[in-house]
Amino acid sequence: MMIIATIIGELFQEKRILSIIIFGASFSIIGIISSIFLGISKHRVNFSYISLSIGLGALFLILLWYILEHKELSCCNNSIFRPQGRNSFVLYIIHAIILAITVIIIPETISWGIIIVIGLVNVALLWFCAYILDKKKIYLTI
């Protein structure tokens, strides 16, 4: 999965957008067809899940790029994802901590509506942390 994601990243750096769209659509179709026979399981990380995740991820990347960068809909010529990209490792660690706390506090039998709210709060916290770290020019790179 990481190797294929790296290929998508290299295609994106080379601005080969049509190749990424074809790649994403192909993997999505392969994932959907194989899910008929294998099912889709995140916990087993089977072929269908990997194919569909890679395909939809590539298509979502192009959609975000088109909306935010190509059409320049972000204000002040700034990328909306720049703070997250500058501190991705720190945000990854913060996300793991928030997830661990959430798993300890929240019961497994909670309704899906509350889970969506918790997910949105998690994303808001991560974006807020990224914004604060970026404003204070605190960057941790490996």
The major β-sheet equals: none
As a percent range, the share of helical residues equals: over 70%
The beta-strand count equals 0
Categorize the overall geometry. Answer: globular
Poorly predicted parts: none
End-to-end gap: 21 Å
- Output the structural class: mainly alpha
Mean pLDDT: 81
Q: In percent, how much strand structure appears in the residues?
A: under 5%
What is the rounded Rg?
18 Å
- Please report the number of helical segments: 6
Number of domains: 2
Order of helices and strands: HHHHHH
Task: Provide structural commentary.
The protein has helices at residues 2-13, 17-38, 47-70, 82-86, 88-105, 112-135. It has 142 residues and is an all-alpha fold. It has two domains: 2-76, no CATH class; 82-135.
List the helices and strands and how they pair.
Blueprint: H1 2-13, H2 17-38, H3 47-70, H4 82-86, H5 88-105, H6 112-135
Helix pairs in contact: 2-3, 5-6
Short recap of the structure:
The protein has 6 helices and no strands. By secondary structure, it is an all-alpha fold.
Structural key phrases:
142 residues; 2 domains
